[in-house]
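ligand=NAI
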Amino acid sequence: MSLSFEGRVVLVTGAGGGLGREYALAFAERGASVVVNDLGADTKGGGKSSAAADNVVEEIRAKGGKAVANYDSVEDGEKLIQSALDAFGRIDVVVNNAGILRDRSFARTSDLDWDLIQRVHLRGSFLVTRAAWNHMKNQKFGRIIMTASAAGIYGNFGQANYSAAKLGMLGLANTLAIEGSKYNIHCNTIAPVAGSRLTETVMPPDLVASLKPEYVAPMVLWLCHEQCQESGALFEVGAGWIGKLRWERSQGCIVRQKNQPMTPEAVRDQWDKICDFTDATKPASVQESLQSVVDVLSRVELEEEVSANPTAAAASASGINPTEAVGQKLPPSTVTFTHTQCILYALGVGMSTKDPDHLRFLYEGHEDFSCLPTFGVITSQAAMMDGGLSSIPGLNIDFTQVLHGEQYLELYKPLPTSGTLTSECTIADVLDKGSGAVILLDANTYSGDELICYNQFSVFVVGAGGFGGRRTSEKAKAPLPPPKRAPDAVVIDPTTRDQAALYRLSGDWNPLHIDPSFAAMGGFKAPILHGLCSFGFAARHVLKQYADNDPSRFKAIKVRFAKPVMPGQSLQTEMWKEGNRIHLRCKVKETDVVVLSGAYVDLHGTSEASPENLTQGGGLQSELVFAEIGRRIKDTGSELVKKVNAVFSWEITKAGKNPAAQWTIDLKNGSGSLHRGPYSGKADVTFTVSDEDFMEVVQGKLNPQKAFFSGKLKVRGNIMLSQKLEVILKDYAKL
Ligand code: NAI
């Protein structure tokens, strides 16, 4: 079906000639009522004449179209929109096209050259669009075009004033697209190329003649049609070609280390990496952009532990080529097991008949006989243990320098107590950490066709760094630091002198864990415990403490192996409950050295907090308010989602506990929901405030702005959304 503009009212500014004229004719031809605006100025903004607009109106009418002329400058934005309303009763589309040039080298640019350009292009577009905005909002339809220019996108000699104004319009358009989205107001930007009186001074005549405005107009019509859902985008268009532009950002590089000042020398030394666009990302919003910057804080916090690894050796010539290695698959491996392996593993990670709770993992005749969830690493590690890594092209590494850096395991269903599982292992990424390389191995484990679990092994190869690769990867499952408060629970559990000798029977045959002379070569005074053994200890501590030893509650675990443990030492697991996420840290009790860091276990549970299952036990006044908000969402959630369209998180602090509670109000998805504890999705804005101050704000005793400026209320993310809170909180003053 052809695209019709019947019933639509379109304003094109600067439509007396060039591109604007072409747009006006094209809209009118497809049924639109057109306001043909043109001041009739010369190319530098001087003079004034009604002839330009009148001629185009006449042309349209001669073809049977509907059009009126307007001779005001775009600086009188209201008057242009009033013309549309007077003649046709509404305004649907605004094409900001009027323009002039006052080209000068920067040194010779006068105040007038600068101001006139800003006034016509940027301020003019602002004034015309603002005058149309509320009409569009009320009718829940609007299409706006901003006209930028390649000079703004790339810069152009002699056009400092013009480039600044043109890219200013892009910024304006980006925000209008966001603010307009829920009213069906779309705003896009074009950088056109066409022969016109503006370009005839810079282009040869035959090019001016062949780059016709009619090769641009169809793009403007499409962007302004009700069928087009594009918004907030930028296009170059000319000669019948159209291309879309977006921002690209290098992976970048952290140039700061924990507890050390950031220096300009570090910036200089990492310059190539900062500017390397290999595997660049494409952030598309302030939130995405900010999130990655905020993530750096926790990455810096955890970084030190890797470089402080006790076996760090001098860097050696490296044979790593990530482009070759990434995406390579290891040969699939199959493991068949029975209850014997499950029980052997449980004993390996310290389960004992001393604890009656453990029997369900140790006795195949038990009515609830189960396999420990962390057995999921055993079934997958075979793929690596078989020496598969050494066959990967681009991974020419010294296998005596390999350390297990981190582990992530996620279960999609409880593990069976016997069966055959097949694992497929892929090199997800190879990172350059300077002192070493990190190989990220993703393993999917299947029973037949059914995906049972996913592991990410993060393997640190000492001395293999410096190959010029990226330092971070979006594919890495990141460790997370625990909350800054005393742990909510602590479990102390001794390992035995033979713990490693027992654990290795589950399939990790590395002599480092049994052979004293081999351990000595690695710089250890005795064989060390397997990192995955401590991992198993910690996981079962959480399972017992927070999930009543029910394996079906176990969802995922992440740990970083910070330091080795000697068999016979005691493990002290510290735990912090944050909703369904249990942060944990594991230390050697005797030495107080942290051995598992950045670790957490995710449990299945009811993450959605309904008012009914809210406990009053937290002792926070804010709980009552959130309970009420939860009730309201149940009643009028869909309506609120339409009005608000955002996700808000709160971190409520109390008596130095930060946070004492976390809440998320999701008014963006579905019919809205309230969540307690850490939120798995992404909040648009996060507030941190004390329980007391929160209550003062909701009761109207404390002005939120004041609270913000006095530091009582901290805001991360899209601060502008705070204004929408009023819709949710305004009635709580009565509570
Ligand atoms: P043009 O000079 O033929 O058209 C611009 C029109 O705007 C003129 O008719 C002029 O009288 C009118 N105008 C100037 N000041 C005004 C004001 N204050 N109020 C109302 N009308 C006013 O130029 P062209 O090439 O058609 O340019 C259209 C737009 O496209 C401009 O914004 C220009 O900067 C932009 N552009 C054009 C390119 C090209 O290759 N032609 C390249 C990049 C951008």
